[in-house]
Design goal:
six-stranded antiparallel sheet; five-stranded mixed β-barrel; disordered C terminus
Length: 236
């Protein structure tokens, strides 16, 4: 599960990294504590065939929805069912996107009570690309661009923190993910274990648990208490 993450790069930096034009209209701001329904950057191919960096709301609202009220429950789409789910299949087939991130958070319940937050981020400081899907919902206030992040079974050391992780796409898979068509099994395959080995699993402080908090201090490493032995993996 991916329910909180950080994305702090500027529109200019993301446009260069993802070789896309900037369609954010100055609406992109750094966010160290992205929560459901927040505005987030996403890279998609427009109907005209151009790769664009856009700002969308996190939590997919299918075009046929009567309202966007249920978006917070649709921030994640399971890779195992995304190709067949009524809510996600159309977007997976025709509207795939990349969701840039610096890293994501998970919580582990501790044997002595409480939870320990962890931040998963590249050791080399490079950008992450979550596999995503997007849709446009037409409301009375105008079109609303929304997206979901795909998740898959956690692998390697990441499975010690949570049983799910975002479907992470190495750079060589970006173009294939954005291109129309493709075999679902290949598109949805997890990244290699050696690539995942380049991620740091960093203990961070409890402040990230409050969505009102923001700032680089949320991703700072904190000492791991001796009592921080995981009791069970939890969905938060």
């Amino acid at each position: 599960m991916c329910g909180r993450y950080a994305t702090t790069r500027s529109a200019g930096d993301l446009s260069a990294l993802f070789e896309s034009y900037d369609d954010t209209d100055g609406r992109l701001a750094p966010d160290h504590n992205v929560a459901p329904t927040d505005p987030v950057p996403l890279v998609r191919v427009t109907p005209e065939g151009h790769r664009a960096l856009s700002v969308g709301r996190w939590g997919l609202v299918p075009a046929w929805s009567r309202s966007p009220a249920g978006a917070a429950r649709m921030i994640n789409a399971r890779s195992e069912t995304v190709a067949t789910s009524r809510a996600y299949a159309g977007a997976f087939a025709r509207r795939r996107c990349l969701v840039p991130a610096d890293g994501w958070y998970e919580w582990v319940r501790l044997a002595g009570g409480g939870k320990q937050a962890y931040y998963m981020t590249p050791l080399d400081g490079s950008v992450l690309a979550f596999a995503g899907i997007w849709s446009v919902w037409e409301g009375s206030a105008g079109p609303l661009l929304t997206c979901s992040v795909l998740t898959t079974a956690a692998l390697g050391e990441l499975a010690e923190v949570h049983d799910r992780m975002p479907l992470l796409l190495p750079r060589e898979r970006w173009a294939g993910w954005l291109a129309p068509g493709g075999e679902p099994d290949a598109l949805l395959s997890p990244p290699p274990l050696d690539w995942l080995g380049g991620l740091e699993i960093r203990p961070v402080g409890p402040a990230v648990g409050d969505v009102r908090n923001d700032g680089p201090e949320l991703t700072a490493r904190v000492p791991l208490a001796r009592s921080a032995e995981p009791e069970e993996l939890t969905l938060f």
